[in-house]
Design goal:
Blueprint (H helix, E strand, L loop, with lengths): L1 H21 L18 E4 L24 E11 L7 E6 L7 E5 L5 E8 L4 E2 L17 E9 L1 H4 L7 E2 L2 E6 L3
Length: about 170
């Protein structure tokens, strides 16, 4: 009986040794992981530039020499941190090619207006340019803008509603 037990113990030990050969570490490796952040800019949350009722007449004298009409608004802009030279470009849906224009409800009468940064720096039509206070630091900037309608642009225009849509395009690296 002792011999059978020894043979059984030897067979069992051999089986355990052969199983441990299958349970060994089969190796390991590494895998690299990468990512990058793209140059991106975005504009949104725009507020309407509302000139309201345009004053057409000089109430103190019998003339149509009313003063300029001015309105202000804001919009948000953001660029990923480290983006080079963020620029903004403004265009009008009613342009004649180089200006901002309000179009009357009749579809044929226009009032030209100008845009500027809140500090007074003029905004050229459809031209990418730096905007004061706008930097690429990954945070949203609320930027102020103002529009102006010269008194000469209002003179002789018919009573009706006028409107325009400004498209603000953000660019970088230009």
């Amino acid at each position: 009986m002792k011999t059978k037990f020894n043979k059984f113990a030897a067979a069992f030990a051999a089986a355990l040794l052969s199983l441990s050969a299958f349970a060994t570490d089969s190796g390991s490796g590494t895998m690299g992981v990468t990512a990058s952040i793209a140059d991106e800019c975005s504009v949104g949350n725009t507020a309407t530039l509302d000139f309201g009722q345009l004053t057409m007449l000089n109430n103190g004298a019998p003339s149509s020499a009313a003063s300029n009409s001015v309105s202000g608004g804001t919009f948000d802009a953001i660029c990923t941190s480290g983006t080079t030279t963020p620029k903004l470009k403004f265009s009008s849906a009613n342009t004649s090619g180089s200006d901002f224009r309000l179009v009357g409800a009749d579809g044929t009468t226009y009032i030209v207006y100008t845009l500027a940064e809140s500090g007074g720096t003029a905004i050229a039509y459809d031209t990418p340019a730096s905007f004061t206070g706008f930097s690429a630091d990954g945070s949203t900037k609320s930027l102020a803008i103002k529009g102006s309608v010269a008194s000469s642009e209002k003179s002789g225009k018919a009573k009706q509603a006028y409107s325009d849509t400004i498209t603000i395009t953000s660019t970088y690296g230009i």
